[in-house]
């Protein structure tokens, strides 16, 4: 029976600075590198056959650390379909300063709601459309072949997948947060019925 692991990249430099990152290509902090090493330790009993990553350096770097720590070489597919949601005009802005300017409710709506897009950015609905289409076309076929898969991506691209995999509603996804560097394990039957989902923890 195959498994899928979803992993948000380790802490990035702009996560640390509390800035909207989106499509800006920033790297990991030392803390983010440590989170990637810890993720590898948590995954020792769940070694993947194939890995997917977004094309952003924070995801690529996280994946490289994990594979090095696990001591394995497996096929890697890097794709723009898994990149973070585009935060548009908010990218690079400090989140606390943005709340002072626009109000906490407006910023919360931009960050968490399903339908509301930041100015000149993507809504989560837009992100779901591209991420889930790619997952159905590319990833599911390998799970059906009973290959175990790791996806390293971003908070919103992974929230999009969680909606699809777990049947999370548009309202409930607003309260769903994904920590950096903590693997989330999905175990499937041979016909891809979801049997169990949980975080891998120490």
Describe it.
- The protein is α/β, with parallel strands linked by helices and 202 residues long.
- The chain contains 7 helices and 6 strands, in the order βααβαβαααβαββ.
- It has a 6-stranded mixed β-sheet, sandwiched between helices.
- Strand 2 (50-54), helix 3 (57-70) and strand 3 (76-79) form a beta-alpha-beta unit.
- Helix 2 packs across helix 3 and helix 4 packs across helix 5 (104-112).
- The longest helix has 21 residues, at 124-144.
- It is globular.
- It starts with a strand and ends with a strand.
- The mean pLDDT is 96.
Number of strands: 6
- Please provide the ordered H/E string of secondary-structure elements: EHHEHEHHHEHEE
- Counting helices, strands and paired strands, the structural category is alpha/beta
Percent range for β-strand residues: 15-25%
List the helices and strands and how they pair.
Blueprint (H helix, E strand, L loop, with lengths): L2 E6 L4 H4 L13 H13 L7 E5 L2 H14 L5 E4 L15 H8 L1 H9 L11 H21 L4 E5 L1 H12 L17 E5 L5 E6 L3
Parallel strand pairs: 1-4, 2-3, 2-4
Antiparallel strand pairs: 1-5, 5-6
């Amino acid at each position: 029976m195959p498994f899928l692991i979803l992993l948000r990249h380790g802490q990035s430099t702009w996560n640390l600075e509390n800035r909207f990152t989106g499509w800006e290509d920033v790297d990991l902090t030392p803390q983010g590198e440590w989170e990637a090493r810890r993720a590898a330790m948590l995954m020792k009993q769940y070694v993947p056959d194939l890995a997917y990553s977004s094309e952003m350096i924070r995801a690529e770097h996280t994946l490289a650390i994990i594979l090095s720590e696990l001591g394995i070489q497996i096929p890697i597919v890097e794709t723009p379909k898994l990149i973070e949601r585009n935060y548009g005009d908010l990218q690079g802005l400090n989140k606390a300063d943005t709340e002072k300017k626009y109000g906490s409710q407006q910023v919360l709506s931009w960050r968490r709601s399903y339908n509301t897009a930041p100015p000149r950015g993507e809504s989560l609905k837009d992100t779901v459309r591209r991420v889930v289409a790619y997952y159905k076309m590319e990833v599911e076929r390998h799970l059906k072949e009973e290959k175990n898969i790791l996806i390293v991506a971003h908070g919103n691209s992974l929230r999009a997948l969680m909606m699809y995999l777990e049947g999370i509603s548009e309202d409930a996804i607003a309260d769903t947060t994904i920590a950096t560097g903590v693997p989330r394990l999905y175990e499937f039957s041979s016909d891809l019925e979801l049997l169990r989902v949980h975080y891998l923890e120490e």
